[in-house]
Amino acid sequence: xxxxxxxxxxxxxxxxxxxxxxxxxxxxxxxxxxxxxxxxxxxxxxxxxxxxxxxxxxxxxxxxxxxxxxxxxxxxxxxxxxxxxxxxxxxxxxxxxxxxxxxxxxxxxxxxxxxxxxxxxxxxxxxxxxxxxxxxxxxxxxxxxxxxxxxxxxxxxxxxxxxxxxxxxxxxxxxxxxxxxxxxxxxxxxxxxxxxxxxxxxxxxxxxxxxxxxxxxxxxxxxxxxxxxxxxxxxxxxxxxxxxxxxxxxxxxxxxxxxxxxxxxxxxxxxxxxxxxxxxxxxxxxxxxxxxxxxxxxxxxxxxxxxxxxxxxxxxxxxxxxxxxxxxxxxxxxxxxxxxxxxxxxxxxxxxxxxxxxxxxxxxxxxxxxxxxxxxxxxxxxxxxxxxxxxxxxxxxxxxxxxxxxxxxxxxxxxxxxxxxxxxxxx
Length: 427
Ligand SMILES: [Zn+2]
Ligand SMILES: [Zn+2]
Prior knowledge:
Layout (H helix, E strand, L loop, with lengths): L4 E9 L8 E6 L2 E7 L21 E3 L5 H4 L13 E3 L1 H17 L8 H9 L1 E3 L5 E4 L2 E7 L7 E7 L2 E5 L23 E5 L10 H17 L3 E5 L5 H11 L6 E3 L3 H8 L9 H10 L1 E2 L3 H7 L4 E5 L9 H8 L6 E4 L8 H8 L1 E4 L2 E4 L4 E3 L8 H9 L6 E5 L3 H13 L3 E4 L5 E6 L1
Parallel strand pairs: 3-4, 4-5, 5-6, 10-11, 11-20, 12-15, 12-16, 13-14, 13-15, 16-19, 20-21
Antiparallel strand pairs: 1-2, 1-22, 2-3, 7-8, 8-9, 9-10, 17-18
Helix pairs in contact: 2-3, 2-6, 5-7
The chain binds zinc ion (2 copies).
């Protein structure tokens, strides 16, 4: 009689929530940790369920966003396992985690030292690479989410597990969409951020966005684009130039450093020569004095934070709300409870303790870096019959409704909660 092989998948974070993603895949005494993020709200940062570093044989880090990377240094208080990720992800994670350590009003249970220790343990990988972690094989695949982002396929004797991280199957200006081979996948751990939303057609969205921006700038105003430092800011400046906006673009806040780092990694940018040109055409704002000057000339300002929770964008916001020839362009999903969401829902923005009415200045464009509902369904349809779909990384109502959709399609789907385990077995 042959021995039964088992692989256990455990969800330590990002179950029915967006944030603090962490999953382990264990088989035959070997464990790989997939991401270890943080959940940042206005309250205390929350980390995933505890894992014992000595029980982890390797870490796979999908991409740099803090909801995937921000808890990792916790594993490096004393030694710690090797980390497989791209060099670009390591560089950007360092930037984002250092920023979190610097600005957090709350206690973070690790320091710069643990971050450095973690970065020292990075074994750089790129797309389509296979590495062996004892008896398991880890294959890296393009995720199409932000520059340097990866998916992982873990091959075990009891079956193959595909972990999507955050992913986008649609091509954008900056990135090629994810196109992994899913024919040999037995369990799919998939994000579901946009499982209830269909994204608009990209080209039409770009044209509409740039037309509105031009209207504001030609009317003598400033078009302020609050955008995430990593990924979205670079996509927005690329879209503006690709759609023939020739006026000034100013880049401020952490987007400056992130853009500089990305420009050093040609293989993670779809059209690198084009991106170099775009990045060169953009003016970097160097300090407060220059910010004053920027506002004297019509143009576009791209600056974090994307949901108006602080950052360089606040300086511009406070100034441009005084004149309604200016415009505020929200270009990403706004999490409930953030000032950006308040603005989107009410047309008013909380500024210095007062609610300022800027409804007629506010525009929303859904430039997502995640697959939308249709793309997620198309992706799941490519799986072999019998494959299990484990949904994570979504608002509860979204993920639960999407699970029901998949069940109706005859797919073995679950909406995983934190602490849930799933077993693959094969004789
Ligand atoms: Zn992400
Ligand atoms: Zn994420």
